[in-house]
From TrEMBL:
GO cellular component: cytosol
Entry annotated with the keyword NAD: yes
Protein name: Hydroxyacid dehydrogenase
Entry keyword annotation includes Transmembrane helix: no
Domain D-isomer specific 2-hydroxyacid dehydrogenase catalytic: 11-316
Family indicated by similarity: Belongs to the D-isomer specific 2-hydroxyacid dehydrogenase family.
Native organism taxonomy: Archaea, Thermoproteota, Thermoprotei, Desulfurococcales, Desulfurococcaceae
Amino acid sequence: MSRVVYTFKPNKAAFDVLSKEGIDYTYFDGNQPDIEWLAKNLKEAEVVVVPPWQFFTAEHFNLAPKLKLLFVGGSGLDKIDLNEASKRGVCVANAPDAIAKAVAEHALALTLAVLRNVVRGDRIVRSGGWGSDTQRLLLATSIAGKRVGIIGLGRVGAEVAKLFKALNAEVVYWSRARKTEVEHALDIKYVTLDELLTSSDVIIVSIALTNETKGLISHREFSLMKPGAIVINVSRGAVIDEEALIKALSEGRVRAGLDVYVKEPLPKDSELTRFDNVVLTPHIAGFTLEALRDTAIFVATEIVNFLTRKSLPYTVVNRDSCVEEKPR
């Protein structure tokens, strides 16, 4: 049985790294392995790699009694039972760096799509509705000079700040913990959440989903926003109260660009699909060839270091609970 188990098929660069070091592995070639496959393949696994969209719960830990390291092949940890992992002494790590730039680019793309009426314009051209007043009806504004408020200044938030600063936007941010070194390095300003909401032309949600941030943006927060403000969500759907968002969109108070949703895939009958003032993408922000390749290489390299040198990945999130920890 393999020491390393992927519950999905990663970029082949991962296998090149592992094979070079003589580490055996197996993977599931599909979206979601069934319990029979997991029961068979996890029982001897020392390392398991899961994608951000798959859950790993107490039931899964029970199937992997020899598990030492659980790696998420991306940034999101909201599907992992961290308490259970820590209780069992299993290290949990993620791979947020390579994906951060891709997600930030997508946040910019969604902003431009909304701000410049890209999707609405495409629909008009395709439907043959381009008339003499179309350009006036789709009159847009530029990013330069606008205030962009970033909610959550993690890796993605920092990359978002760089992109919008390069386009001459004024960038402010709010996070649960102020990050003075980062804000000074990026030359951006920390403000309260309320000030960010009331003053920003574009609001980028890039904060991690936790019990504290679930429903962070709800009816009150939408009521504080400037009329016509653009809300971009590249974090997790549940950070925004979807009912409150739908109400704000239906009243024309805000515009939005969404890559994530409370329920995924987004149901065909979702009210979000009925509005022209929102651009929707199917959770693809982190899916670039470069991000997937670099993430795969990072994860595989850290697995090699862990198995051969007992060296923990620097991205381990429950370091104090890891039974295998030794200095790097």
